[in-house]
Amino acid sequence: MKNPVPQAASLLLEKLLLLVHVRPLPSGSSGEPPPAPAYYDTSCFKRGDLLEVPRTLFIHFGIYLGENRVAHLMPDILPAFTGDRRQIQQVVTNKRLILGVITKTASIRVDTVEDFAYGGSILVNHMDRLFQDQVLGSEEAARRAEKLVGATAYSLLWNNCEHFVTYCRYGSPVSFQTDKFCETVKMIIRDQRSVLASVLVGLASIFCLGLAPSTTLPTIFIPFFLWMAG
Question: Which residues act catalytically here (predicted)?
Answer without folding.
Answer: 161
